[in-house]
Amino acid sequence: MIFPKKTLKIAGILILSAVIVLFALSLALQDRVAGVIIKTLNRNLLTKIEIGSYRLSLLKKFPKASFELKNVIVYSSPDFERSGFRGINTDTLLAAGDASVDFKMISLLRGIYSFKTITVRSGNLNLYTDTAGKYNYNFAKKQSFDDSEGKVRLNLDRINISDVRLLYHDLRVDLIIRCILNNGRLKSRIRGGNIDFDGTSDFLFNSISLGKTSFRHDFLARLDVGLNKNEKGIFFRKSVMSFEKQTINLTGFIAEDNYLDLSISSKHFDISKAYHYLSDNYRKISPDYRPSGVLNLDCRIKGKSSRFEDPHYEISLSIKNGGLQRIRSDLRISKLQFDASMTNGIQNHPETGSLNINNFTAGIGSSTFNGSFSASDFSRPRAQLILNGVFVPSEFRELFRMESLVSSSGSLDLDINLSGLMERKDHYSLYDLSELNSRSEIGFRSFGIELAGRKFNLKNVNGELTIAGNTSADKLDFVLNDQIFRLSGKIDNLPEWLAGKPVDLTGNVSLYSPCLKPELFFNDSRPKYEEGKAVASFILPRDVLIDLNINLDTLKYKKFDASNLRGQISFKPGMLNFRSVRFITQGGTVTGNGLVVQNRNKSFMGRGSFSVTNVDVKRSFMSFNNFGQNFLKAENIAGSLSGTITLVLPVDSMLNPIMKSLVAEGKYSLTDGALLDFDPVKALSKFISLSELENIRFDRLDNDFFIRNNYFYLPMMQIKSSAVDLSVNGKHSFDNEYEYHVEMLLSEILSRKAGKTRKTSSEFGEVEDDGLGRTLIFLKLIGKGENVDVSYDMKAAGSKVRNDIRNERQMLKNILNEEYGLYPAQSEPAGKEQNSKPRFRISWEGTETTAQEPESSEEKKEGGIRRIFRKK
After folding, report:
1. Could you read off the pLDDT of 804-840 as tens digits, one per residue?
2. Omega into 63 within 30° of 0, i.e. cis?
3. How confident is the model at residue 666 (pLDDT cuts 50, 70, 90)?
C-alpha cells in the first residue's frame, strides 16, 4: 500500500511540476510566439493582420500548444479596384471575434512554428471580385515562403470554421451571395503562391442574386470542395454541392487571365425538391403551382471571360416525367418531357448561337400536345415552332385560374408551324412568335368562351381557320352574344395585330347573319367622364383597313327593324365608309352611301346620301320615337314617303347627335298622305272655321327641304287636299319653334263657310266659282310646341300684289312684242311700284263681308289683256 501511495504522490508532484513548468513556459514564450507569428505572416502575406489580444496555452489542448486570439482583423489584399463597390466598406477581408492556432508542442519548443489547426468562430468573411477579375483575398506572395525567422510553416492540416457570415460579391457577373458557414472543415497547404485546398462545410444560404434574378429564401446545403491555386490559376478537383439529397458537380479550372474550362452537371435531379429554392421572381409568377419531374443537366464552359468576349458554352438538359400541379385542383400538366440544348456557337457570339427543344410532349387533362422549337443567330433569331395537339379551354381555365373567362366549352385542333426571322430584343415572349411566317391551321369544334365584365359570349364556333401568309376562313360559323354569324374571307397581319405589333390589319371579309341586334354588343355601363379628358364610347382603330361585306336577313335596333340588308363597310384609319347600302324597312326600300369620321377630340362626323322609296311614314315615326320631337307625332301623319336626302351630322364622343350643327337637304314625295289632328292645322281651322282641316288627306305632296342652323326649312309648295288647296312655306327649329306662311284662295274659304261641297276637276270634281277670281288670303302661323298664333300675313300680301303687277306688266310686254314686234332689243325699265293697300280686308264677326276696290288697268286678268291686244 505504501508503494502505490508513494507512486501517486510522485506522479502528482510531477504533474503539478509539469503544469507549473508549462504555464511558466506559456508566459515566457507567449510574446515571442505572437511576435514571430504576426511578423512572419505580415512579411509573407499580401494582407495585413491585426490582433486585439492573445494568449498562449500549453495545457488546454495538451500535447498541442494553442495560441488563442481575440478580435482578429485580416485586411483585404491591396491589388483590386474598390471603386466599383459603392457604399460598401471593402477594407476588411475577415473580422473574427475568436480564433486559435494549434502547434505541435515539441516543434514549438524547438522553435519551429508548424500550424496544425486554425479555428475561426463568430466572424464575418467578405470576398470581393472587381470587374477585371481581381479579388481581395489574394493574400499569398509569389516568392517562396520566407521562414528564416523561427522557421514558420503554413502547412495547415485543418481549419475549423463555425458561425462565420460569408459575403461574396462578384462585379463581373453581378453575383451576390450571403450565407452562414458552420461545421466547416478545411485543409490547406500553402507554399508561396501555391495553395492546396480541400474542405467541407454546411452553408445556410440567406440570399443569392444574379442580375435581376434573386433568391431570398433560407436553405441549407453542403459543399465539398477540392482545388489547387497556383500562378496559373485555380484547378477544381471534383467539387459537389448537395441539398435535399440532390447533387450538382463542378470540375475544371479558372486560369489567372480568366480563361475558363468548367463542367457543371447534375443527374437525376428531382425538380419538386428544388421548387422552394426558386427565386422570388418565379415564385410570384406561380405561387399556387408545384412542379415535378427528373432533370439531367450538363453544362460546359470553355474560353476567356471578360467585358469584351464570352467563353464558349454548351448546355444540354432533359426533363422526364415532368408535370405541374395546381394546389386545390385535380388538373395538372402531366407526362411532360423534352430534350434541350443551347450554345453560343463556334465564334462564341450571339450570331452563331442556337437553341433547340426536341421531343416535346405534354398532357393537360384530356388535351395533348407535341412539337419542337429551334432558334439560331440570337442577333436576329431565325426560329421555328411546331406544335400539334388538342386544346380544351375549360381545362386551361381551371388549371391556370383564368378569372377573365366566365365559361368555356368545346376544343381547338391545333396544327401550328411557324418559321422565320425575329427582331433582336433583350427579352422575348410568346407574342413575338407572331412575327414568324405561318403555315398553320386551327380547327374549331363547338368552341366557346365568355369574358367577364364585357359583353362577349362566343359559342358554337365551328370551322377551319388557315394562317398562311394571311388568315383565311371559309364559312366559319359562330354564335356571338346569342346571335348567329357566318364569316368568310381573308385578313392580313392578324397574328401580329393581336399581339400588339405596329402593323395594319387589312383584308376583305364577308359576314352573314339571319338576325343582328346591335344593342346586345353594348356595355350596360357607359364610360365615365374624366375632367379635362375626352371620353369616348368607342375609338375607331387607326390600324384597321378592312372591307366588310354585310348580308343580314334582319336588323333590329330598339323599335327599328329592317330586312335584306346588303352593303359594304370599309374600315380605314379613324373612318367608316358605307357603300351600296340597301335594305327594306317600314314597307319600303332605303339605299345609300355614308361616311363616319372620328375627330382628334374623339367626336364623330357623319355624312351620307340616301334614297327612300315607299316608306310608311307612320311606322317610321313610331320606330324612331318621333325623331326625338313631340310636335309632329306618328298619330298625326300617314302616307308613303319617297325621296332623297344628303346630310352632315356631328356626333359627340358619347354618340349623342349635335342637332344644332346638322346640315341636310333633300327632296321628298308623300303619296296617299294625311295630317291627322295636327295642332297647327287645327288652329288654322278654328281661325277660319273649317272643321275639315282637322283631318286633311291628299293624294301627292312634292317638295324640297333643307336643314341648317338648327332649323328645318320648307320652301313654298302647293297642297291639294280633301279640305282645301293651299300653298305653304316656313321653318321649324329643333327646339320646336316654328313659323309657317300659308296662301289660300278666298273663294275656297267662302265656299266652305257657305257649306258648299268642293270638288276639283282633277282630284275632287268641279269647283263653283264665287266670282272673286284669283283673290288670295295670306296667313301666318307662329308658335312653340302646342301654342299656335294665327294671323293675317300683311307683308306676304303686299309682296304678292307687287309680284302680280310685275308679272302682268312683263306679260303685256311679251304679247306686244310677239304680236306687233315692239321692244325687240330692249326691255322696259323697271319703274317704281306704288305702294298699294291690300285689295281685301276680311272680317269674321258673325257674317262674311268683302270690300272690293276698283281694279287698276294693270291688274286685269290675262285673258282680258290678250283679247284686247291680240291680232285678229
Report:
1. 555 655 654 564 455 444 445 444 444 444 444 443 3
2. yes
3. confident
Residue where a domain stops, chosen among 204, 231, 258 = 231
Of 56-60, 95-99, 686-690, 766-770, give the range with the top mean pLDDT: 95-99
Per residue in 353-374, pLDDT (tens digit) is 999 999 999 988 778 899 999 9
Residue 71 contacts residue 181 (beta carbons within 8 Å)? no
Q: Tell me how far apart the alpha carbons of residues 788 and 730 are, in angstroms, rounded to a whole number.
A: 14
CA atoms within 13 A on the CB side of 853: 10
What's the pTM?
0.65
Average pLDDT of span 470-499: 90
Name the residue range of residue 25's domain: 20-231
Beta-bridged to residue 533, according to DSSP, are: 530
Query: 259 exposed, middle or buried (CB, 10 Å; 0-12, 13-18, 19+)?
Result: middle
Nearest residue to 238 via CA among 230, 228, 226 = 226
Beta strand pairing call for 175-191 and 155-170: antiparallel
Alpha-carbon distance values, 867 to 240, 431, 805, 857, 861 (Å): 134, 94, 18, 14, 10
User: Which residues face 174 on adjacent strands?
Assistant: none
Euclidean distance between CA atoms 279 and 516, whole angstroms: 52
Give pLDDT, residue 727.
79
The Cβ of residue 249 has, within 10 Å, a number of other Cβ atoms equal to 18
Rg (CA), the chain: 52
Residue whose C-alpha is closest to residue 180's, from 194, 195, 161: 161
Strands 470-480 and 457-468 come out as antiparallel
Q: Tell me the residue type at 527.
A: P
Query: Within a domain: residue 114?
Result: yes
Q: How many angstroms separate the CA atoms of 225 and 197, rounded?
A: 8
Spatial CA neighbour of 697 closest among 633, 767, 755, 763: 763
Which of 196, 231, 266 is the last residue in one of the domains? 231
What is the count of structural domains for the chain? 2
For the chain, give the percent of residues with pLDDT over 70.
Answer: 70
